[in-house]
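Why this split exists: single-chain examples teach little about how molecules sit against one another. For that reason, every record in the complexes split bundles all components of an assembly together and asks for one structure covering all of them. Below is a record exactly as it appears in the raw files.
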Amino acid sequence: MPTDEQIFDKICELLKPYNVKNKPILRASGIMSDLEVDSTAVFDLIMELEDHYDISIPMEVISDVKTVGELVNAIQDLLNS
Amino acid sequence: MSGPKSTADGEKVAASGLSIFSKYDPLKQRVDVVKKLGVDPFDMTFDDIMSATRGRIGNREIILAGTNNYLGLTFDPSTRASAKDAIDRHGTGTTGSRIANGTYVEHEQLERDLAAHLGKPSCIVFTTGYVTNLAAMAGLAGPNDVIFIDADAHACIIDGTRLAGTTTVRFRHNNPADLDKRLARQKIPEGGHALVVIEGLYSMFGDIAPIDEFVAVAHKHGAYLYVDEAHSYGVFGETGAGIAEEQGVLDKIDFYSGTFSKSLASVGGFCASRHPEFELLRKVMRPYMFTASAAPSNICAAQAALDAIKTRPELRHNIMARAAQLHAGLSDMGFELCAPASPVIAVRRDNEVQAAMEWNWLLQEGVYVNLAVPPGTPESSSLLRISVSAAHTEEDVNAILSRFKALKDNGDDIIAEMMRRMQASA
Ligand SMILES: Cc1ncc(COP(=O)(O)O)c(C=O)c1O
């Protein structure tokens, strides 16, 4: 089971190509609001995370996720369920 | 200063000074930039539309190359006569929904004829194509069902999943192997089913789905396959029944949706099914039950267009010939095109500002295409999107090509001139 820290690092790595302005990625960073990742790109990132962890992250789960930290938590929850 | 404020007549104003519209400030900034270029691509008006391929703005005649009027039937004598006759016989509107007073014999006749054309026992006609997908998807998928949608799904399919309110999983665009993997991964709740939703011809890039492979994957997992052929019905297939017909799997499609607003030259939508029980959904689909039905003139125009689709295969030959001509011409010039030749040809540009400037210049030079920019475009791309019509002549396509040639040869000058104009109006 990956640790919280490992999930955060993985998200940072996958976010890199979408973070065009190269802003610092914090747990509190808003994925769309601060990092300026557009909605289509967020869903593409989600597919990569689904494949990496072999889990399904339904779209309605994502609509509640605003920050990087919330995404880490959502993945934790899905891995534990 | 803090606490609530009021206007002179006692209307309370938020302490923050923000209004209900403030969340759109970033959007307003983008719109303002685009407006300085000339015409707002998302808020423009034609002073006249004279034919399926010609419009007018001021005293400038415009070649229409972005209207999804694939078969060019909006001005066909048969569709116009049929619509006028419907108005004379039944008036201008139904003033009621399909479940009240809004179902006329013509609505039912069109349903029977579309069902027959698609070889399905059931077909339901809706007020628009957008409403069709909302209604059918939300009617089909209940709380225990899971919807799988293509990553490039049209807005109305995404909104369909929202109205359905069920678990929704997205798979990689046009990738049946990826769907296979996600269907295997996703747990379907007890008593639930999977509904896979794809399109035939994708409206932005103009690329075509391997529907035959999707049928195999969906049915292997016991999932139902829903195909939106909005852009391909009437255009592809031996009898015009779309890409599913062309790929030999029309009879395997569980749900087949389409619109009247493209090859059928009208306004409205339809969904046909190989499952006769689909008829029962007329009693539950809220976007079917609680909106007025399509006007008699719209229904009768679509009926005449359907007759043309069945009896005039030359329309399909024309559009494919023009699409091939335009696609070859643009790729010879070195433009990056998003897919092989089809009636939708998307020219990829470097960024939103370049695309918006070129769009304005093309309009100034008498060619209307669509501007497509992020968010919402595949790969966050900025596109000049062209849709070809059977009514375009070889000369029309040459005229479109000549403008793109100028864009290719003098692109830098054109952009510089647009920039100057923008600064002048700043
Ligand atoms: C794939 C797709 N489905 C449905 C629609 C909606 O059709 P209508 O214009 O009839 O609402 C469109 C049109 O924009 C479309 O591109």
